[in-house]
Amino acid sequence: MRIRGSKQSKVNRIDRSKALAAQADEAVKERIRTAPAYMYTSLCPVPELRRPPKGVIRYHETLLHRQRASRV
Predict the structure, then answer these.
(1) String of b and e for 14-31 (b: at least 16 CB within 10 Å)?
(2) Which domain holds residue 8?
(3) Is the dihedral angle over the CA atoms 61, 67, 70, 71 positive or is it negative?
(4) φ, ψ at 35 (rounded to 5°)
(5) How far is CA 61 from CA 20, 25, 56, 58, in A?
(6) Hey, which of 16, 20, 22, 41 has its CA 20 to 30 A from 31?
């Protein structure tokens, strides 16, 4: 009896994780579809979205950080 219950709970967990992953994928696709052009750049038409959210590091900033770290 216990084995069937644990198998069923495992199946339920997997189904729930798949559903959450599909929901997250859909949210990302919707955000990409509705996001303004050039978001988080100085060319963005929406002034509030010209700066990235707090804590977001841009790619070129990580490269500069790596270059500075290698000199030390």
Answers:
(1) eeeeeeeeeeeeeeeeee
(2) 2-71
(3) negative
(4) -70, 140
(5) 32, 27, 10, 5
(6) 16
39 in Cβ contact with 49 (< 8 Å): yes
| Torsion of the alpha carbons at 62, 63, 66 and 71, rounded to the nearest 10 | -140
The count of domains in the chain is: 1
Rounded to two decimals, the pTM is: 0.46
Tokens read off for 20? 């959450």
Tokens of 5: 């219950």
15-59 per-position pLDDT tens digit? 999 999 999 999 889 988 888 888 888 888 888 888 877 877 666
Q: At 12, list the tokens.
A: 């339920």
Q: What φ, ψ does residue 60 adopt, rounded to 5°?
A: -65, -30
